[in-house]
Write a structure and sequence with these properties.
The chain is of the alpha/beta class and 390 residues long. The chain has two domains: 140 residues, Alpha-Beta Complex (Aspartate Aminotransferase, domain 1), CATH 3.90.1150.10; 239 residues, Aspartate Aminotransferase, domain 2. It has twelve helices and 14 strands. A hairpin with a 7-residue loop joins β10 and β11. α1 runs parallel beside α11. The N and C termini lie far apart (55 Å).
Length: 390
């Protein structure tokens, strides 16, 4: 008997990834695309976790709730209140990850063939999540010449009768851009007028280095799903807890929350322990987040200073997040893949080729400035040497 599988949905291992694994196994790797906060040296202070775990496991008793723990939802709501937003705890749904949040929203609000507008450049995960949900992705552009901002007019031109949702990622991965207040307002008006909800992915919201973070949730006429979680905010990817905060017109919010709650109730993926821990994480987070932000700002500045003095490299300085796009003037006119392979082979420095993120013009690579400053400076110096030899 032959069993049906979906091999076309599974990306093959590229020569670049094979070389990466070889270098890593030999300890000859300088990883400038690290995105794991633990491997980068950031961990939420253990004392809070240990004290809460001791108390929790002495008295634990499972009471599943389809939206998630009410105490945790109140803590999330209080967090947003400090930023001038007031999502009702009853309009917040707790999930195991931001990726799961996307899948739950797609399952609750969309039917097969619906279109989702997503940014390009963009993280390739979204296309896979959309494909697995039986939906289709339509890309809107982030303009490099305009600090990687979206064009609300282009977004409106892409809307069809099948468009259901628009994904907005701010701070953005991989551009490091933050959508400005004027464009947020215009995008909110466009989407609200067409009955299209916005998913605003804010997982890097605590890492803003220049200015403020405008939010679609500030616009009361827009149905908005704001996503975040503990992975980046608390440097705790192992806890597997995230959330969807739904805001907008009352009737639309109630219908959307009811649909999302039903889907979430099917799986109840987020564990009771991390939900119980969330209020304590919020209470003790401020000094820890300030320390992380300061270290990442230093790294961001190191990257910007290097790019400003390096030959044959251009950078739009990231305003937030942990990623940036480097545009490289390669005199051998190689592809992204060939150049990044050559860099890794010759220097041990690992970056991502830009094509993985939908960047089609010129030679680009994506770097992360998460991790020790000395490692970043060393890796950037090796890139300079590699460029100087070519």
């Amino acid at each position: 008997m032959t069993y049906r599988v979906l091999p076309d949905s599974i990306p093959s291992i590229t020569p670049l990834h094979e070389l990466y694994r070889e270098k890593m196994a030999r300890g000859a790797l300088t990883d400038l695309i690290e995105t794991n906060f633990h491997r980068a040296g950031f961990r939420y202070p253990a004392d809070t976790l240990i004290a809460h775990a001791s108390e929790y496991f002495r008295h634990r008793e499972y009471h599943p709730e389809a939206k998630g723990s009410l105490d945790a939802r109140h803590a999330i709501s209080a967090h947003y209140a400090t930023h001038g937003l007031t999502p009702d705890p009853e309009s917040i749904v707790i999930t195991a990850s931001t990726s799961e949040s996307y899948s739950i929203i797609f399952a609750a609000l969309c039917t097969a063939g619906d279109e989702i507008l997503i940014p390009t450049p963009g993280y390739p995960l979204f296309e896979y999540l959309i494909e697995y949900a039986g939906l289709s992705a339509t890309n809107y552009r982030l303009n490099e010449a305009d600090a990687w901002q979206p064009d609300p007019d282009e977004i409106e031109s892409l809307i069809t009768a099948d468009t259901r949702l628009l994904v907005l990622i701010s701070p953005n991965n991989p551009t490091g851009s933050i959508v400005d207040q004027k464009r947020i307002a215009r995008i909110a008006r466009v989407c609200a007028s067409h009955g299209i909800a916005v998913i605003c992915d804010e997982v890097f919201s605590e890492f803003v280095y220049d200015g403020s973070l405008p939010r679609p949730a500030e616009h009361p006429d827009l149905l908005c799903f704001t996503l975040n979680g503990a992975s980046k905010m608390f440097a705790s990817p192992d806890l597997k807890i995230a959330w969807i905060a739904v805001t907008g017109p009352k009737e639309a919010v109630e219908k959307a929350v009811d649909a999302i709650e039903t889907v979430n109730d099917v799986f109840l993926n987020c564990g009771a322990f991390p939900q119980s821990l969330l209020p304590a994480l919020f209470r003790g987070a401020h000094p820890f987040i300030e320390t992380m932000r300061a270290e990442l700002r230093r790294n961001r500045d190191t990257l910007a200073e290097w790019a400003g003095s390096a030959d044959r490299v251009e950078l739009v300085t990231p305003r937030g997040g942990i990623h940036a796009i480097l545009r490289v003037d390669d005199r051998q006119a190689r592809s992204d893949e060939t150049w990044t392979y050559g860099l890794l082979d010759a220097t041990g420095v690992h970056v991502h080729p830009g094509y993985l993120y939908g960047i089609e013009r010129g030679l680009t690579c994506v770097v992360s400035f998460l991790g020790p400053n000395a490692r970043l400076a060393d890796g950037l110096g090796r890139i300079s040497g590699f460029l100087g030899n070519r």
